[in-house]
Known about the structure:
The chain is an alpha+beta fold. The chain contains 15 helices and 9 strands.
Amino acid sequence: AQTQSRRTVPRTAFGPAWSGFRVQGTADSPPSVAGQRQGTTSSADYDHAMARVEATLYTDASCPWAYSANPALRVLEWRFGDQFSWRLVMIGLREEASDAAVRAYDPERALARYRVYEERYGMPFSSTAKARPAGAGRGCRAVVAAGLVAPGSEWTVFRALQLANFTSSLYLDDADSIRDALLGVVGVDADRIAALVDDDAVVAEYARQQAEARSAAGTAAEAQGKTSTSDGPVRFTAPSLVFQAGGRTLVAGGWQPLLAYDVILANLDPTLERVPPPDSPEPLLAYFRGGLTTAEVALLLADGSDPIPDRADAETALAVLVAGGRAVRHPVGNDALWSSA
């Protein structure tokens, strides 16, 4: 029988001495390579000695490119499992919506822009336009606060805010809106996170992360035109991934296809073991306990270094699981989030 266990993340004291998030796997990590072969999940404890690659994700919950990269990120988590340790760094694309952005905002045009991302990359978007643009500062600080309160939970909060930002009426610059988006998220104290978004320790850690995200000068991301100087320093665009192993650092700046990550990792460490895709979505839903979108399942089921996902087939397979009582479909935007029953 398959044993299903979840990794636990050790807590640290909430305080300004915390120097950054470094967690072995995300809140919804896949099994280890060995565990997958045996039909079991990896150990319930994080084992940093197992990690051979450190992956740092520079991102922002307000960025549609970062949101659209989720299927590829899920494949990396599944494929390489505990051979990776992950760090999450908030970029902070814009603290508040500028007066010019507010004046120029056209709800229908914004909605049409999101339709392009949805049709091209598959992640769900809302069919209703928001009344106004929003800054991202408080949303980023909510993620930072989660990492300070319970290291590891920042991934859960980031995921929830990303989904809510693009599929609901969430405003990332409003603490009450952030709290509402986090209510009911397992393992997250929505009231506490919302109350901490302007806390001094949270603001200080957020500033440190912003500075780290603005250290992209001279990197491969800049050479590829995948950086920005919108607020002065050369910063990573979202989502940027920096891989480190054996004293080497390789950078995938900005949005990249799965193949780009695969090429980088094959060069960084060709001995990395790779978990193949399963035959059905059921193991995926069991391991990604927070649920998966149709686009994420489709890419996870596709085989090869540059796979072509079949969303229709994935949705059919997911519907079979729902009909059999083994999965649940949660409507999200124009699509759904699927989870184990």
